[in-house]
Structure formats: structure tokens, C-alpha cells
Amino acid sequence: MDNSPMYDDIPFNPETNMLELEDVGLTGLYIMDCDALIELAGILNETDCIAELQRRKAIAQQGLDGMWDEEYGFFCNRRTDTGEFSRRISPTNFYALYSDHLDCDRIRRMLDEHYYNEEEFYGEWMLPSTARSDPAFKDQEYWRGRVWAPLNFLTYLALRKQGCAEECWDLAEKSEHIFRKEWEEHRHIHENYNAITGEGCDVLSSDKFYHWGALLSVIALMDRNQRGG
């Protein structure tokens, strides 16, 4: 997410070699990674490492709890130098749903106030990589507003973990919709898509034959299989 507006104006700390930002998306992915490794350890009967993986997961989930912005109703990236929340959001903020520590009220607020918010993520062409209300959304260039299949895919898996069946169905339908537009018109599977028009060919920075674009249709297939359809 090299030009994502989430990281605009975030200072780099030369002593830690890190940006001054706690990242919801990376924390959620780390939690998912711990879950996957715990499952693999069980399959391989490598049970000695499970306790350590559970410990690491618990630390990550505790850190994520501190990124809940009660006023905004969302898990937000947080500045490590000032402690302030950043409300420059993307679908990666939904990766908080990989945590086991979420209550129903928080999940509902995330969905009602952000997923279904037409000024942020909801619409015909989704999920935009930048909230529609962000000034960078109009750029529609790379990670500044365009739809990326990996973001949809990882958000879908996060919704599925929390049992959000209606939202999973909705995102699967929207993912198939944007995939079909370029496929049926040009037989292209794009690297990314315009979140305003659904096009993939409108910029030079969207490869016309890109492997992960197929994840948009994989989401639809997964959801149909989940529903037995």
C-alpha cells in the first residue's frame, strides 16, 4: 500500500526504523497469522509452540483493543508519537474483525457506521482502498481510492470469521460485479479498478492481466459454497 493516504504525513522514526503509527490492518493480519500457525501446529503435532503463539496473539489483541475509537465507532490507526487516532481509513481497518475480543456492539457499529456508509466504503463499486470522503479518493490512482481484490478478499475473510453472513454475501456480490464488468467488456482481469466507474483500463498503473484480480471471483465462489448454492 505504498501510496496509501493512511501514511501521508506520518513521521518516520530513524531510531526505531518505523513509522510513528500503530496499524490496525497489520495487527489484524498478525492475529490471523497466529491463528493459522496454531492450526498448522496442531495438524503437525508441533504442540510445544502453541502456547507461545497464543501468547503473541494475546499481546496483539490487547494492542488492538487500544485502537478502538469510541467516538468514531471504528478501530483506527494511532500515532505512536502523539497518541492521536488517524481517521484516514481503508478496508484494512476492518481487519480488526480477525480478533477474538470484539463485542457485538462494536462489530455492529463498524458495519453500520462504516461498511454501509456511502461516504466511506459502500456503493456500486467497492471496496475503495480509500474512504470516499477522503481528499485522496478523487485521485483514483493506485492505493488512493481504487478497488483492490486483496483488500476485498481479506475483508471478506474477516467478516466471515465474525459470522457476518449478510455482509459476506453483499461483498461477494459486489466483488463479482466489478470483476465481470472488465471481463465481459475486454476479457481483462485487472490489478485494480476505479471505485467511481468500475473500469480497470482508465489508468496505466493497473495491469490488465494480474493474478490477484481473480480473487474477486474467488470471493463469490467461496460465498456460494458457504451457502450451499
What key attributes describe this structure?
229 residues; Glycosyltransferase; two-stranded antiparallel ribbon; 7 strands; three-stranded antiparallel beta sheet; mainly alpha
Q: How would you describe what is shown here?
A:
The chain has 229 residues and is mainly alpha-helical. It has one domain (5-227): Glycosyltransferase (Alpha/alpha barrel). Helix content is 42%, strand content 7%. The chain has helices at 24-43, 50-65, 104-115, 149-161, 165-186, 215-227; strands at 12-13, 18-19, 21-22, 68-69, 74-75, 77-79, 85-86. Strands 3-6-7 form a 3-stranded antiparallel sheet, with helices on one face. Strands 1-2 form a two-stranded antiparallel ribbon. Helix 1 packs antiparallel against helix 2, helix 4 (149-161) packs antiparallel against helix 5 (165-186) and helix 5 crosses helix 6 (215-227). The protein is globular, with a radius of gyration of 18 Å. The model has no long low-confidence stretch (mean pLDDT 96).
Structure, briefly:
This protein is mainly alpha-helical and 229 residues long.
Topology:
Layout: E1 12-13, E2 18-19, E3 21-22, H1 24-43, H2 50-65, E4 68-69, E5 74-75, E6 77-79, E7 85-86, H3 104-115, H4 149-161, H5 165-186, H6 215-227
Helix pairs in contact: 1-2, 4-5, 4-6, 5-6
Low-pLDDT parts are none
**What order do the SSEs take from the amino end to the carboxyl end, as H and E?**
EEEHHEEEEHHHH
Amino-to-carboxy terminus distance: 34 Å
- The total number of structural domains is 1
Q: Roughly how many Å is the radius of gyration?
A: 18 Å
- Helix/strand structural class: mainly alpha
Strand content range: 5-15%
Q: Give the CATH architecture.
A: Alpha/alpha barrel
Q: Strands across the major sheet, in which order?
A: 3-6-7
CATH uppermost class = Mainly Alpha
Principal-axes shape call: globular
Average predicted confidence as pLDDT: 96
Helix content: 40-55%
**Total E-strand runs:** 7
In DSSP terms (H or I, runs of 4 or more residues), the helix count works out at 6
Q: The biggest beta sheet, please?
A: 3 strands, antiparallel
Quote the CATH topology: Glycosyltransferase
